[in-house]
Design brief:
Strand order of the largest sheet: 3-2-1-4-5-10-11
Number of helices: 11
Bound molecules: adenosine-5'-diphosphate, 6-O-phosphono-beta-D-fructofuranose
CATH class of the largest domain: Alpha Beta
Shape: elongated
Oligomer: single chain
Helix content: 40-55%
CATH architecture of the largest domain: 3-Layer(aba) Sandwich
Distance between the termini: 57 Å
């Protein structure tokens, strides 16, 4: 393999740049040329390629976002779009591709492999909702960002003796809510995977205040419920001062943690090894500290379960 491409696609996540850097530098180590594709799969359709050398990825290891830009590209879901992309890749002599993104992007990677372009997927999303990897790039950073925000919320909540409902991202999954709720001692964590009882949560908040608690924090995963509605119900049922915060896209930004930089470096380096060995259509995951390869098809047909042990622990600890 003489020339490979890199795509960052879907929602950005801190650590994407660290993965791009690792791919470019590992490829340079083997004498393989690398082209970056701008704006996700859109760049394949528009032939928007940029040559990346070891210097063009300098000073990006610590930066959030993605220097390649990202996009959601519906045209790549169509046969015509896919054929255009294939033509452009062939015209450019790109023989293999690394796709850095979430589950949608992995579907795109699967399409490329099926069209004959060996493609490797690197799981990257703050939602951490991809099976066959303990962590996706970006999740650890987002967890720390949310925990930092919750520390600040706790200060003001305590001063005013208020209840705060904090909505976190995660799309249809509750991993980000669970980890941040546990790390922040939230009184309740609402996740889409588990039904919740708002009456019981309100009783818990009231009995906490009776015991002298100065604040309550309820973490709501965006896929579980409307935080605004949850806030309204809590206010009505507890008669306590309640505020709602939606953390939003700040959860996707910021400098990646050391953990995410190392994960991205490992995934990126391994992706180049795999393409060099003509491996295709695999996602690289991290399971119990080891790099593990799984067929992308299998990844896409397997839901990632919520860690029930953690959920139960969080529930017991949050009296
Ligand atoms: P994420 O990768 O963060 O989950 P999306 O679900 O928005 O984000 O997917 C990112 C992009 O991946 C889409 O905009 C599209 O270009 C590509 N993609 C998603 N699903 C498919 C599919 N079934 N076939 C081809 N490409 C797809
Ligand atoms: O998949 C990452 C994510 O940030 C989700 O948590 C969220 O639901 C979605 O992307 C937001 O997408 P957009 O950037 O299009 O608003």
């Amino acid at each position: 393999m003489k020339r490979i491409g890199i795509i960052t696609s879907g929602g950005d996540a801190p650590g994407m740049n660290a993965a791009v850097r690792a791919i470019v530098r590992k490829a340079a180590h083997y004498g393989i040329e690398v082209y970056g594709v701008h704006r996700g799969f859109m760049g394949l359709i528009n032939s928007d390629f940029v040559k990346l050398d070891i210097s063009s990825v300098g000073d990006i290891l610590h930066r959030g976002g993605t220097i390649l830009l990202t996009a959601r590209c519906d045209e790549f879901k169509t046969k015509e779009g896919q054929e255009k992309a294939l033509k452009n890749l062939e015209a450019f002599g790109i023989e293999g591709v690394v796709v850095i993104g979430g589950d949608g992007s992995l579907r795109g990677a699967n399409v490329l492999s099926n069209m004959g372009i060996p493609t490797i997927g690197i799981p990257t999303t703050i939602d951490n909702d991809i099976a066959f990897t303990d962590n996706c790039i970006g999740f650890d950073t987002a967890v720390n960002t949310v925990v930092d925000a919750l520390n600040k919320v706790r200060d003001t909540a305590t001063s005013h003796e208020r209840t705060f409902v904090v909505e976190v991202m995660g799309r249809n999954a509750g991993h980000l809510a669970l980890y941040t709720g546990l790390a922040s001692g939230a009184e309740a964590i609402l996740v889409p995977e588990i039904p919740f009882d708002l009456d019981a949560i309100c009783e818990k908040i009231k009995s906490g205040y009776k015991r002298g608690k100065l604040h309550s924090i309820i973490v709501v995963a965006e896929g579980a419920a409307s935080s605004i509605e949850v806030g309204k119900v809590i206010k009505e049922k507890t008669n306590l001062e309640t505020r709602v915060i939606i953390l939003g896209h700040l959860q996707r930004g910021g400098t990646p943690t050391a953990y995410d930089r190392i994960l991205a470096s490992r995934f990126g380096g391994k992706a180049v090894d795999l393409l060099k060995e003509n491996v295709k259509d695999k996602m690289i995951g991290l399971i119990n500290g080891e790099l593990v390869l799984t067929d992308i098809d299998r990844v896409l047909s397997t839901p990632k379960p919520l860690d029930m042990e953690l959920y139960q622990l969080a529930d017991i600890l949050s009296l």
